[in-house]
Every structure is written in C-alpha cells, then in structure tokens.
Amino acid sequence: MAVHRYNFPTEIHFGPGARKLLPAKLKEFGIRRALLVSDKGVAGQPFFDELLRLSGAAAVYAELSGNPVESHVHAALEAWRDAACDGIVALGGGAAIDVAKAVAVLAGHKGCLFAYAEGVPGQKPVSGPVPPVVALPTTAGTGSEVGRSAVISEDGSHVKRIVFSPKLMPRAALLDPELTVGLPPGVTAATGMDAVTHLVESYITAGDYNPLCDGVALEGLRLAARSLKRCVAKPRDLAARGDMMNAALMGAAAFQKGLGATHSCAHALSTVCDMHHGLANGIMIDFVMAFNKPVCREKFKVMAQVVGAKELVGWLTGLKRSLGIPRGLAKAGVRKEHLPRLVDVAVADPCHQLNPRPVRRKDFEALFSKALRA
Amino acid sequence: MAVHRYNFPTEIHFGPGARKLLPAKLKEFGIRRALLVSDKGVAGQPFFDELLRLSGAAAVYAELSGNPVESHVHAALEAWRDAACDGIVALGGGAAIDVAKAVAVLAGHKGCLFAYAEGVPGQKPVSGPVPPVVALPTTAGTGSEVGRSAVISEDGSHVKRIVFSPKLMPRAALLDPELTVGLPPGVTAATGMDAVTHLVESYITAGDYNPLCDGVALEGLRLAARSLKRCVAKPRDLAARGDMMNAALMGAAAFQKGLGATHSCAHALSTVCDMHHGLANGIMIDFVMAFNKPVCREKFKVMAQVVGAKELVGWLTGLKRSLGIPRGLAKAGVRKEHLPRLVDVAVADPCHQLNPRPVRRKDFEALFSKALRA
Description:
Number of domains of chain A: 2
Oligomer: homodimer
Number of helices of chain A: 14
CATH architecture of the largest domain in chain A: Up-down Bundle
Strand order of the largest sheet of chain A: 1-8-5-4-2-3
CATH class of the largest domain in chain A: Mainly Alpha
Order of helices and strands of chain A: EHEHHEHEHEEEEHHHHHHHHH
C-alpha cells in the first residue's frame, strides 16, 4: 500500500509590480525587522534601492556571488542576530533565496548548518520554529521561492549539501517579471534551462506519485517552450519573462516528487568544475534524456506533444543550440582529467536514485564521456 | 497591472488505505473530540463502523440526504455544541463535506450562516477562527475536500448559497479509493461528470490567471478521460477509482480560478428541479461548450489533445452517452414550463460571470431550450 502526500502551500503573487505588495506581506506575517538577503549583482541593479525601501530592512546582507557556501550563511546569520531581526526578505536568484532559508533554519536551531543536511551521519531534524521568508526572485530558474530545500556548498570542498524541510518553504513569493528584464542573455539561458530540467526530470522521476505535480510540470514545460527563446532574443518582453518566472516556480513545485540523473551530473560539475548549476543542467539534459528514453516512451510522447515537437530529445538539443548553451562539456571548460572525479561525485549524489532508469557508474562514465566529446 | 495569487495548501494523502491515517492526523491537528459528519447512505456502508472507530468521534451527525440545506447545518452545529467538539471529520460526498465546513464557520462566528454567503447584502467576512476539518470523500466529483467553499441551500426556496473563504479548506484530505468502490454506477457517472465539468470550466474560465491550475486541470482531464468510463464499467477497479478521486480533487483545486455557465445552468436545475448537481452539469456541459467554442479554439484544441480526441464537444457528448447520462433535460424530468424560472435563476447565478463567452438571458434561453429538445 502506497499512500502519497501532496500540497502546494506557498502563497504566490505574480505580475508586473508584484514587488509592491512587500510591505503589506511583511505586516501580515508580523515582520517588523527584516533581514534583506541579496547578492552583489542584484545590489547593483536599479531596482535594489526601491526594494530596500519597500522592505524597511533592519539589516542587509548582500555579499553573495556565485554558488553560496556555508560562510555566507554564517555572515548573514550574524547580521540577523546583530539587528535582532524577525523575518527575512530574499531578493535574488537561488543563491540569495537558499541563504535566506539557511539563516531561517539557524535562527531557531542550534549548532552547525550541515548537521541538518540530508544524509549526514546523525542528521538533526528541522523541528524548531523557522521565521518567515518572503522571496522575490530576480532570475527564472531555480524556483527556490516555492521549494523545500536550501542548497549550500562546503567552503573548502565545494561539495553541495541539501537542507530539506517543508518548513523551508517561503511564506510568500512575489514574482515580478520587471525584476528579471535586466538579466544578461547568458544567465537567462542557463537559469531557463535549469527550470526546463526541473520540469522534465520531475515529470518522469521514479519518485512519489503526484498527479498535481505532473500537471504543473507539463504546463510549465508548455510555458518554457513558448517563451524561453523569446526571453533571450527580446530581454524586455514582460510576457515572456512572466512565463519563465511561472515555469521556474512550477518546476520547483513539481520536483517535490523527485528529480533525476541530470541533476546528479550537474551537482558533480558544480562541485568539480564550479560550473553554474543551470548551465550544467542545460548541457547535460539531452544526453541524460537520450539515456532515459527507452524506459519513458509514453511520457516522452506526452512532453513532445506539449512542447509542439516531434520528439523530446531532439527538441532539447535544438533548444540548447538556439539559446547559445554549449552542445558539450569541452566548450564549458571541462577536461578529460576531470572525468574520474565527476563520476565519483555523480554516483554519490542522491538525485539519480529517483531517475526513471537506474544509473550505474559505467552509465555516468558514458554520459560524461559523450558530453565531453560532443 | 494584474497581480495574481495562487496556492494549494490542503495536505492530501492518496492511496488505498489512506483512511487509516485518520487517528494520526487528528492527533497532529490537536483534535480530541471530533464531530463526525456523514450522510444516511454512507452510514449504511460497511466501512462506516471502521471510520467511526478511527475517528473516535465524540458526536455523530449522519442525517444528510440529497442537497444539504441550512437546517442540516444547524442540527450538526447542535451536535457540535452538545459534545463540546474541537474538530470535524467529514465522511461522504460534497454534501457531508460542505455541511462540515459550514459547521466549522459557525463554530467560531456569530449569527446566521447565510450572513457569510457570497453576495448577500451586508455580507460578513469569515474573519474568526475556523476549527480544523479532515475530509474523507466517498465520491469522486465535487472535490470539496480541497475546495474553499461550502454550498448550502435555503430550506424553503432551495436557492443555493455559497460561503467562500480560504479558511474553509480542510486541513487534510484522505483520499482512499476503497471508500468509493461501492458507489452505484449512476452516482459514479454523475459525480464523475461533475469533476469533468470543474476541470473543463476552470481551464477556460475568464477568471484569474493561474498556470498551476491550468496544468492541474489538464492533467485531471487526462485522468478522467482514462478512467471515468472504467469506474462505471468495472466499479471495483481501484486504479480507475483512484484516478477519478484525483481528477475530482484536481477539478476543485483548479476552480479557485473560477468556473462558467455550465455551473449556472446546474445551479438553476438544482434549485428549480432539485436535480443532482453532477447530473445537471453532465447534461448541460456539451451544450455550453458548443456555445463557448468560438471564443476558446486554442484551449479546446489543447483539451482535445489531452483526452485523445479529435474535438472536445463531440468527445463530451460521447462520454455522456457511454456513461448513461441523458442526452437532454427531458429524460431527467425537466418540462417546458420550468424554462422561465431556470433562466431567471441561471442569469442571477454568479458563476457565468467568469464564462469565457458572455452569457445573456437569451443565450440561457437558447441553451436550456436546446437541452430540453435534445
């Protein structure tokens, strides 16, 4: 007997200008002394001052750049404590939102962050109170604004650790496409491929049954097929940017079911080569889907129908090309000598355990080798 | 500027045997003295005693039959007060779940139920505390187990009143297909068509934009297309019954966007002819969709693709036929002299205000006349 659980609790407000709801939401959630968590890139954007004002922040931590590491969390936590904050506004991409969630965990839980990470020996549960987080994403990819996890790397090894709990879901997400129109094409493409990877992998995952997530994943894929190329070609197209913000959150809402082997490859590429997560997913997805195809024929047909293509793997390859995502790993700086370590990290990564087709060490070797030669 | 809000908070547990989670859920929500609300038909089912035991109910109200009216709510509220209950278990179809929700409102709100109904002069808000409801549906149609409204009729006039608030959502829904295998084919067909109507109308509604709901509606329609006929032909098929339970909840999750004119027709048929809500939707849906088609060509194509048919309206008509739903209203006991009142009630009903094609009085006249002649 399998009994499956599903719900989508985050309150989402979507539309140009949604950021202006921030003061009302802070009031509603009883946040009087917000910590604003952001990153260096966002702090240089024209909208940053407006958001600083709207948040009425008692403290700001905006020192992030690249993949977030544990020391970022500790620095932000210090700002939280110094200003006696009572809630968090996360403004940025997945890095800022994940750091905000990690600070929220440590605000009410003793000890080191990674004591709460998935799969560590003696893992502690997130059982205490977690202060409210309001997320304003500035990219359309990770969907962390509705996700249940914070992905933070170790400072030294760059190994990614995942803290997971439904309590990590932000109380509200304000999706304002005006915050994404300034994203450079390369970031738009890479984060967009991250969303596409979430949508595809959650739909075919061997994880828990969840028909709401299936529907959300397919509809998100329809939006991405309609609008991702347009976001790169016409960066100021608000309708396309809005579609991609929705596609991103839908990917994250859907992947509560589970993900797959593309993510294990991408986690390895980030750990070993410090590659951007979305770019890594974007390069690997068609290789992994070609590998999965024999066991997912029916679901691949449904996805092809939704994106309006004859066949899914070919569509993904074409999408990469039109977005300027490299066909293979060599152009992204990966070399043959990285292979053994990439394979080691991917094999150890938990995501592929829910891949619809079991992935053995020799399969990862073949996948990375193909992607390196392409 | 439009800013749209969406979330799906109800915790759903789905699978054969999900009912056995009830004691754990009651404990989790702090319910020690549950009121069990059910209906006469369910009280005669073999599983009723098991659920009575699992709920450890301090009080039982199981006097419902047919569409629920205000006096049912007052009788159940008396049982709630006499036993000093602190939470509600709703076991049944939409009637039992809606009465449970209405009792939950009155438990923490003064005055008459309909003071909180949509659109009444001086409508009061559901601003106070609402005790937790755990829903165990025994039909697959209304989806009230995840819905935000309670539909209760006036005792005398049978006019349907809708109490709406996100606070009315049950805290948890336990979807156990074993509770539906005993449903007679006629009820399976009528409640199933109710779910189909929710899925179709919410997808095309002119109501708020919500891409998660769009995806949920389409996926629910896929499940219904796959399994509704099978539930009628093979009543003990648990997989098909499970698909329809999901389709029903997905219909209700999706219609937070809004519904359309089929529902206004059905509300009129219930009010004027005391017709079962699902049967009324089932009879009217293809007539209303033929009317809507000119303004929804793209969405109709997507839905036809999802159900695997050439064209949506023809598919709906064929589905009705194969389920034993009457083609038109005459076979369901409606007569020509009912027409003026049907039109009056439908025009006054709020649902059609979100129909994708505006529906004037003469349109309702034409729809009912066509359905009566068919």
